[in-house]
Structure formats: structure tokens, C-alpha cells
Design a protein that fits this description.
- The complex is a heterotrimer.
- By secondary structure, chain A is of the alpha/beta class.
- Chain A is built from 20 helices and 13 strands.
- In chain A, the strands form three sheets. In chain A, strands 1, 2, 3, 4, 7 and 13 form a six-stranded mixed β-sheet that branches. In chain A, strands 10-9-11-8-12 form a five-stranded mixed β-sheet, sandwiched between helices.
- Chain A is globular.
- Chain B contains 13 helices and two strands.
- Chain B is globular, with a radius of gyration of 23 Å.
- The two termini of chain B are about 40 Å apart.
- Chain C is flat.
- Chain C has a single domain, classed as MetI-like fold, CATH 1.10.3720.10.
- By secondary structure, chain C is mainly α.
- Chain C contains 14 helices and no strands.
- The chains are: A alpha/beta, B mainly alpha, C mainly alpha.
- Chains in contact: A-B, A-C, B-C.
């Protein structure tokens, strides 16, 4: 009956009103959120004298569990600090929320931020560079791999602490290799070899498709670094803010478009679009014999595929001594809430996350790299590696990557947009609307416009 | 007497007050801010960095991406609106008769509404996959539903129509309940068959609801972006880059909030014009 | 005889449509029962009944808390929108006053504002009021909607004008007419509207994400997000999670359908 529904709703409303008063305690309500200091003190000294700090992260699924485990371990390891960990959506949602929080004075103390958000965080003025905290606890910077920290170093200073680190690598179907008469322990090293192998695979009917890769700007950036070249000027934007791209002048961009177009036109490769999950699905279901993907999907890949998985280094456009891979993933940033107690507490948590045991546990549960080389020496890690030889490929690729301005990756405030433009340029190259040269020029023109816009809006 | 008539004058506004209060606080006020920001260039945080007058609007109207978005949005809206309302209507009619299990059928038809756009997108991504997906298996084809510019918009439309059928269905079936039974009885006496009955009685009687659904579907079609975000990200080659996804991108991915506000105003004006046009049409068409 | 054939045909049609429409939901349910390798083997049906994915989903996100929160929020929002909507709609359809058309258009205009443009501004309002992380924050921006006003206005307009005229002659005041006569007559519309509003609110993601921080205040769609990985996702718990949060939605239908059907008895104009 209508009345019945209205009564139900009225009861709900009453329940809500009662819970509102109960929930009032969970937020620093009744105070204007514009004032940070007062609210911070209330928060910081709650829970029996412990300093309470918040961590915002974008880790869901298995990674979320591992994050919670890390936070729990830290909280249980000492009595002065309590970390409250809060999931804030995926990377895109998290940065949206952080930007809103910056405006309203509601920032967390530690915030995870994806790799391409580095310039934004640096320019925002709300982050405390972690390097400033090293001396306070005698932290040894060499306990984190250089190739990893180089990405997060701006103007010689390390801004944030890497947290979940991955690189791309080649995944291939060993069963199909065998059926096609290829050596299952020798993956292709260059795209020329990829093409050759794909031809054998398709012609021998071992699999319908030889090779596939998602349309993803990250792969483009990787191949520029693989050729030992800069993506943008001013040394990838790290010596001074980038004002334009460099991949047209140095020719690396064109080579990439040409190579991939040739691969797609051969008929031995396929395009599953820009949603990376779709290319993964094609691989797991045996449709395509090789893909390139993040090292972080290894666990899922092994569990989902009905065949033996092999891994190899990311194929190169051409052999190059300066070339290597760029790390990706996310890092932990310290947000400036103008409170020393919370600042020190935040640093202690971050430092804890870099210890060999924390890193070993994190790496084994998630498939991300351990940023501390000492983690690989722990017994647990050694056992894990012995059981997961494919993981060794990822580690070795990282270790053999030269540390230089190319592999540090580009520091750009418009990375999300640039990747979107890349998607469009690549799609139009595949379907023939653009020639590789036109695509590169289009990409450069649009990205340059975005960079100019960004630079003038942040003056 | 004068007191009574003063109350009489104010009375209608009192009825409007509760709703208007919320509208002003959470829609109009932020909207004014949006208008203001549309004339500015913003910092990545969303604060004004400088006022640029009409230049955001000029970039919008001279950019070929926007023209592409307009065309894509228009195609998408027409396909979605027509299919959603027609199918919703058919479903309402066939489940309104006195047949076995009609409650189960009705629940099934309304069910897609309960699935969020995010969950539906995940399921359909599997269904549309070019090699693993059921659709290709059932049809025996090898189409890249989400990766081929020819098919992508159609695929996103299918998902949207599936999600919207429920909405149209429940309002239409509610409307069908209020068609007076005696009209059907007189029609039966005069020997009107199934189709005639619906053409001459049902449709005219529920025309206010049909009109309402037309407006709602158009507005929804031009504001739906979750499916695009999850399945195609505006691609391939901009073939699913509807205006509102462009706005979402501009605001949250490119961090050009001022531009996003300008695009929002443009979308708003388009919707206003379309709606007013439909209202003019109503006067001529409703029973 | 003709009638029987028509009924039979309609039955077949219903079955066909029902199968097509429900198959994505069935597929979702099936995947929630599959092993990882099965998912990528490409079958439609799962080979076993397995609840592991449901356990995983509940482990990764406290769905029961989320369901409780979403229920509180959605029910209150539904109530709020119907009440404010019916009141405003009554004025727009049954009363005459200055500025009626202009105000109606103004109110309609609010439906055309893209949410992306105003969501951050609303977030800042909530913060300034100190309402972060409360049910109030989740409810008040959605407590009224032009959709509800518009829908109820159309419903009132469908009522024969004779009823109002008769009531006026009898000296019945506006509010009494509204509450005792007009509202009961539009029960089907309110039922449909209630279902729609409830489900819209149930499916909100970004707004709850912005205005709540702690996990005990979050809502169901955020729960689904918590099941997804950054680079690769095991979709089975995601499907299981979708099924879990579907259950309360179906309850909303069952409740709302009662309103829709009860209108059957008041299909004709009563004297």
C-alpha cells in the first residue's frame, strides 16, 4: 500500500536521523573544514595519544589486500602512530578527489599517485618532497634502486617514494611456440623478430594471431626510451619544464609508428583496441600467441591461461646501448597539512614500507617489484623466485636497464591527454587514415598545444 | 476575505518551495559558478588562472573534435531514444495482457535498470570481445564490436538501450494501467482487433507519458558517459566520443576545467533548445 | 479462438524477449561461478556451483555495510524526491499562478546541467558545511529532482479535470485534495517513479566517493570498484559483487510493482 511504503520510508528517515547523530563523531563535523590546524589537532591526538594519519590509495582487489596488510603490519609494529588507510577509487578517481580535497583543505597525510601525476604533484605546492625527510631518520637513499627513483626525481630532488612499480614485458604462449616449431625458451628480442615469429605461428596454424598489443601510450613512451631518445625537450622536462616534444626531431616517434604499422599490416598481428583488458583476454584465451603487458599481471596471467606462459624482455625497435625500460605504477607522496607530528608520522610509515621484509611481502602478494634490492636476498623472496621463474625476467630487465635521462621517462603535466591523443593517432594509422609520418606530426602538434596550455595555466 | 486571498496567492509557491530550495542550493548556484568559470583558463587544481573571455567558446566551435562529438552524439541519441522507447513500449504491451507468468516477465524487463553502467559495461565487454565474446560465437562472425569504428557506436548503443529498456518499460506499464478499461470494452464491442485497439486507444491515452519519456531519453542519451568511459574511451578514432564524455575528459583527465565548463554550457543550451522544441511539438500532438 | 492464438503468440514473444534481455545477467551470474581458466575458455555456462568468488568479494569489500548504507540513502532520497516532486508537480499541474510556465522551464533546465560541471562545486559546499562523511552529504544534493517533478506533473495531468472541478464545488481545499484524492489516483506513476529514483541512487559512484572517506560510510558501487585491480582484474569477484548488490534492487522492484499493479483496480475514473 502507498501508506505502507511511506511508513517504511519514514522509518528509514528516522533511522537515518539517528545514525546521523551517531556518525557525527566519525568526522570533524561542526567545524568549518576551512580551518586545517584545529581539525588536525583533534584528529592527531585522538585514540589515546597516538598520532593518527590517513593514507589514500587506489589499490583494489589483491593489491588492496596487500596494502591493508602493510598498513596493519606497520600499526602493529609500534605504538606511536596509527595509519588509517582509505580506498579512493581508481587512479583517475583518486586524483580527482585529491584535487577537490586540496581546494577544501581536506588532504590526507600520505597519498598514492600514479606515475603520470608526478608533475602535477610537484607543481601543486602541496607535497613535501620525501628527500627532505631522509636526514630525520638517517634513511639510506641507496636502499631503493636508482632506476626506480630516477622517475620520481625532479631537479635533482626525490619527490616521492615509489610504491607499486612495474615495467612492460613480453608474454608468450610456450605451447604455441612448440607447435609452431619455435624454441619455447627463446622469445623474440626485436620487433623484426616478433614479425618473423608471428609469421611462423600463423602459417603453421599454431594460433590464429601471432602478436597483439593494446593501443596504449605507455608502450609508445617505452619505445622512445628503448631507442635511447627523449620524449620531450629540456631533457624530458627534468632539467627545466618541457615546452615541446622531442620525438619528431630525434626521429624515434616515426620509427615506432612505422614498425607497428608494418606489423599490423602483415596480417599476422591483431588489434584489440585500447582497453588493455581486451588484449589480455585475447592472450589468456589462446587467441594470440604473444602480447606485451605490465609485469604486474603475471599472477593473473598464470592463473587464467590454459597453457604454459613464457616471458621475455620488452621487444625493441632496434638494439641500442642507451635504451632501456621506464618504470611505471605509482608512488607515495607526503601531503603538507602544516602539522609536524603528522609529517614525521607519515615519513615513518613511508620508510617502513621500504624495508626489505615489507617490500618482499608486497612484491610476493602483488607481483610488483620490490624497490629495495635487499628484499631479493630474503629467504621468502628467494623461495618465491625459485617457484616463479617468469618473475626473474622482469627483475633482470629492470636491473639491466641503464639509468639515464631517457629511462627516467618524461615529466609532463599533460601525460593523460598525450596518451589519449596517441590512441587516436595510432587508431588512425592502423585504419589507414594517416600515414605514420602524418600520425607523428598530428601527435606532436596536439601534445605541444597541450603543453603550451598547461605551462601558461600554471604561471 | 483579504487574508484568505493572500494565502491563495502564496499557496502555489509554498508547494514549490521544498523542491526549489534544493535546486537552488545544489544546481543553480554551482551552475552559476560553471558559467563564470567557462570564461576562464584554470589551473590544474581548478582555480582561475586568467580570464579569457570567449576564447574557450571560440575554440569549441572551431575545433573539428567538437563537430565530431556533435555528430556522434546526435547519431547516438537518435538510435538510443528510438530503440529504447519502441522496445520499452512493445514490452509493456505484451506483458500487460493476462498471460501466465506475467509478473516474472515484468520483473525481467525492468531488471537491467538495477545493473549499474559500470557493471553492465564489464559484462558487455566480455560479450563483445572479438574472439572470446558470445555475440560473435552466436552470430558466427569475427567482428571487433568495440574496436572497429564502424561498429563501436552501435555496440555502445546496444548496451545503453539494454540499460534503458527497464526505465521506459516501467513508466509505460504504469501509464497503461491508467487507460480506462471501458474504452477497451467499447472498442471490443465494435470489433477492433489487437493492433487497432492499441493504435487508436492506447497510444493517444498514454501520450503524455510517451512525451515525458521522449524528453527524458533524449536528456539521458546526451548525458550518459559511463559506458563510453569503460568500454571505448571515446574511440576508436573518435567514433564514440559523445559530447558529455568529451566534457568528462576535459574536466578530469586534461584538467582544463574552464574549457569543460564552456562545453557544459554548450551542451546545456543544446538540451534546452531540443526540449523547448519538443514542448512546442507536444501542444500539437498530445491527446 | 482468435483470442487464444493471440495470447499464445504473446506468450512466445514474451519468452523470446525475456531470454534476450536477461542473458547478460545470467552470463554475469555464470562467470561468478567459474574458475579463472573457465572464464577465458569462452563458455557461457559454468561447470560447477562455486561460492569462492562470493567469499572473495565479501572479503575484499564489506558489502553488507555498503548495502546498509545504500539502502538508507536510497530510501531517503526516494522519499524526498517523491514528496518534493509531488508537491511541486501539483502546483504546476493543478494551480494557476504567475510565472508558472517560466518556473517550470527553469526547473526543467536543471535536468540539463551536466553533472561533471557541478560535482566539484557541490563537494566544496558539503565541505564548507562540515558535512563530509555523513549520510546527509549523500542525501541532500539528491533530495529533490526535476525528473520527479516532471513525471508527477504528467501523471497529474492525466487525471480527468472533472474530479478537480467536483472537488472545488464541494469546497475541498488544495492540500486535502492533493493528499486524499490526487495522490492515491497516481499510485502507478509513483510506484514507477519510486523504482526509478531508488535505482538511480543505488547506482551512484562518483558522488559517494568524493564525499565519504571511511569505509563504513561507503556505498555499493564503490564496493564494486574495490574489487578491481589497477593493471589486471580478476573479473569473477566483480561479477559476484554485482550479483550481491542486485538483490536489494530486486526487492525494490517487488515493492514498487505492488504500486504499479494496485493501479489496475483504479484504472477507470471513479465517481
Amino acid at each position: 500500500m502507498k501508506k505502507g511504503k511511506k511508513w517504511l520510508a519514514a522509518i528509514m528517515a528516522a533511522a537515518m536521523a539517528m545514525s546521523l547523530t551517531a556518525c557525527g563523531g566519525s568526522s570533524a563535523s561542526n567545524q568549518s573544514a576551512a580551518g586545517t590546524a584545529a581539525a588536525a589537532d583533534t584528529k592527531a591526538t585522538a585514540a589515546g595519544g597516538k598520532t593518527v594519519i590517513t593514507l589514500w590509495h587506489a589499490m583494489g582487489g589483491v593489491n588492496g589486500e596487500a596494502t591493508e596488510a602493510l598498513v596493519k603490519a606497520f600499526n602493529e609494529s609500534q605504538n606511536e602512530i596509527e595509519v588509517k588507510s582509505e580506498y579512493q577509487g581508481n587512479y583517475d578517481d583518486l586524483i580527482t578527489k585529491l584535487k577537490a580535497a586540496m581546494q577544501s583543505g581536506n588532504m590526507p597525510d600520505v597519498c598514492q599517485m600514479y606515475d603520470i601525476g608526478t608533475k602535477f604533484m610537484t607543481d601543486s605546492g602541496y607535497a613535501i618532497p620525501v628527500q627532505d625527510m631522509f636526514k630525520t631518520t638517517n634513511f639510506d637513499p641507496s636502499s631503493v634502486m636508482n632506476i626506480i627513483t630516477s622517475y620520481y626525481t625532479v631537479d635533482g630532488k626525490q619527490m616521492s617514494m615509489p610504491f607499486n612499480v612495474s615495467t612492460p614485458m613480453l608474454y608468450y604462449n610456450k605451447d604455441v611456440f612448440k607447435a609452431a616449431g619455435l624454441d619455447p625458451d627463446t622469445p623474440p628480442k626485436t620487433f623484426d623478430e616478433v614479425l618473423e615469429y608471428s609469421k611462423k605461428i600463423v602459417e603453421s596454424k599454431a594460433a590464429p594471431v601471432g602478436y597483439a598489443q593494446a593501443i596504449y601510450g605507455w608502450f609508445f613512451e617505452q619505445q622512445i626510451a628503448g631507442q635511447g631518445k627523449y620524449y620531450a625537450n629540456n631533457e624530458n622536462g627534468r632539467k627545466a619544464p618541457a615546452t615541446e616534444v622531442d620525438f619528431v626531431n630525434n626521429g624515434s616517434g616515426l620509427k615506432i609508428f612505422e614498425t607497428w604499422k608494418k606489423l599490423m599490416d602483415s596480417g599476422y598481428a591483431a588489434n584489440y583496441g585500447s582497453t588493455t583488458a581486451d588484449t589480455q583476454t585475447a592472450f589468456f584465451s589462446g587467441q594470440t600467441a604473444m602480447i606485451i603487458e605490465s609485469t604486474a599481471i603475471l599472477k593473473n596471467a598464470t592463473a587464467s591461461s590454459n597453457f604454459e606462459i613464457g616471458t621475455g624482455y620488452l621487444p625493441k625497435i632496434e638494439e641500442n646501448a642507451d635504451g632501456g625500460v621506464i618504470i611505471g605504477g605509482a608512488s607515495l607522496w607526503m601531503m603538507d597539512n602544516k602539522d609536524d607530528a603528522r609529517k614525521n608520522a607519515a615519513w615513518k610509515f613511508i620508510e617502513y614500507s621500504t624495508t626489505p621484509d615489507s617490500q618482499a611481502n608486497w612484491s610476493m602478494s602483488t607481483g610488483y617489484f620490490a624497490i629495495n634490492p635487499a628484499a631479493y636476498e630474503t629467504t621468502a623472496m628467494k623461495d618465491f623466485i625459485a617457484k616463479n621463474p617468469n618473475f626473474v625476467t622482469a627483475i633482470n630487465q629492470l636491473k639491466s636497464s641503464p639509468v639515464n635521462g631517457y629511462t627516467a621517462g618524461v615529466l609532463s603535466g599533460v601525460a593523460t591527454e598525450s596518451r589519449k591523443i596517441f590512441n587516436e593517432a595510432m587508431e588512425k594509422t592502423y585504419d589507414g587514415t594517416y600515414t605514420p609520418q602524418e600520425a607523428v606530426n598530428y601527435l606532436a602538434e596536439k601534445v605541444n598545444a597541450a603543453i603550451t596550455n598547461y605551462n601558461s595555466s600554471t604561471k | 476575505m483579504r487574508k484568505k486571498s493572500l494565502f491563495r496567492v502564496i499557496e502555489p509557491y509554498l508547494y514549490l518551495l521544498p523542491a526549489m530550495f534544493f535546486f537552488v542550493a545544489f544546481l543553480f548556484w554551482p551552475f552559476i559558478k560553471t558559467i563564470w568559470l567557462s570564461f576562464a583558463m584554470t589551473t590544474p587544481l581548478g582555480a582561475v588562472s586568467s580570464f579569457v573571455g570567449l576564447s574557450n567558446y571560440i575554440s569549441i566551435f572551431t575545433s573539428h573534435e567538437f563537430r565530431n562529438s556533435l555528430i556522434v552524439s546526435f547519431e547516438y541519441a537518435v538510435m538510443t531514444v528510438v530503440c529504447s522507447i519502441v522496445i520499452g513500449f512493445i514490452l509493456a504491451i505484451i506483458s500487460n495482457e493476462d498471460i501466465k507468468g506475467k509478473n516474472i516477465f515484468r520483473t525481467i524487463y525492468a531488471l537491467p535498470m538495477a545493473i549499474s553502467a559500470a557493471a553492465a559495461s564489464v559484462v558487455f565487454m566480455f560479450i563483445f570481445h572479438s574472439s572470446l565474446g558470445i555475440l560473435n560465437k552466436v552470430l558466427g562472425t569475427h567482428i571487433g564490436w568495440l574496436t572497429d569504428p564502424k561498429y563501436a557506436l552501435g555496440a555502445v548503443t546496444i548496451v545503453t538501450v539494454w540499460m534503458n529498456i527497464g526505465l521506459n518499460f516501467i513508466f509505460l506499464i504504469a501509464a497503461l494501467q491508467s487507460v480506462p478499461m471501458d474504452l477497451y470494452e467499447s472498442a471490443a464491442i465494435e470489433g477492433a482487433g489487437f493492433f487497432a485497439k492499441h493504435r487508436h486507444i492506447t497510444i493517444p491515452c498514454i501520450s503524455p507519458t510517451l512525451f515525458f519519456l521522449l524528453i527524458i531519453n533524449v536528456i539521458n542519451a546526451l548525458q550518459a558517459y559511463a559506458q563510453v568511459k569503460m568500454m571505448t574511451q571515446g574511440g576508436p578514432s573518435g567514433s564514440t566520443n559523445v559530447i558529455v564524455y568529451q566534457i568528462y575528459q576535459e574536466a578530469f583527465m586534461n584538467s582544463r576545467f574552464g574549457m569543460a565548463c564552456a562545453e557544459s554550457i554548450v551542451l546545456f543550451l543544446i538540451l534546452m533548445i531540443l526540449t523547448m522544441f519538443q514542448f512546442k511539438l507536444e501542444k500539437k500532438v498530445t491527446y | 479462438m482468435n483470442n487464444k492464438v493471440v495470447k499464445y503468440l504473446l506468450y512466445i514473444l514474451n519468452i523470446i524477449f525475456a531470454i534476450v534481455i536477461i542473458s547478460p545477467v545470467i552470463y554475469c551470474f555464470n562467470v561468478s561461478m567459474m574458475t579463472m581458466k573457465e572464464v577465458f575458455a569462452g563458455g557461457f555456462w559454468s561447470r560447477q556451483v562455486m561460492l569462492d568468488n562470493y567469499k572473495k568479494a565479501l572479503q575484499l569489500a564489506p558489502f553488507f555495510t555498503f548495502i546498509k548504507n545504500s539502502l538508507i540513502v536510497s530510501c531517503t532520497v526516494t522519499f524526498g524526491q517523491i514528496v518534493t516532486g509531488a508537491l511541486a508537480a501539483y502546483a504546476f499541474s493543478m494551480m494557476k499562478f504567475r510565472g508558472r510556465n517560466a518556473l517550470f522551464l527553469l526547473m526543467l533546465a536543471t535536468m540539463m546541467i551536466p553533472s561533471q560541471a557541478i560535482i566539484i562545486a557541490n563537494y566544496l559546499i558539503i565541505c564548507d558545511l562540515g558535512l563530509k562523511n555523513t549520510y546527509t552529504a549523500l542525501i541532500i544534493p539528491n533530495a529533490a529532482s526535476a525528473f520527479a517533478v516532471f513525471n508527477m506533473r504528467q501523471a497529474f495531468l492525466q487525471l480527468p479535470i472533472e474530479i478537480k472541478e467536483a472537488a472545488d464545488i464541494d469546497g475541498c481545499g488544495n492540500f486535502r485534495f492533493f493528499y486524499s484524492i490526487a495522490l492515491p489516483l497516481v499510485k502507478p506513476a509513483m510506484g514507477a517513479l519510486g523504482i526509478y529514483i531508488f535505482l538511480q541512487s543505488w547506482n551512484h559512484y562518483l558522488w559517494p566517493l568524493l564525499v565519504t572517506d571511511s569505509v563504513n560510510m561507503r556505498t555499493v558501487q564503490i564496493g564494486l570498484g574495490m574489487l578491481q585491480g589497477a593493471e589486471s582484474t580478476d573479473f569473477r569477484p566483480v561479477m559476484a559483487g554485482s550479483m550481491i548488490i542486485l538483490i536489494p534492487s530486486i526487492l525494490a522492484f517487488v515493492l514498487g510493482q505492488k504500486q504499479l499493479i494496485s493501479g489496475l483496480t483504479s484504472g477507470s475514473v471513479k465517481g
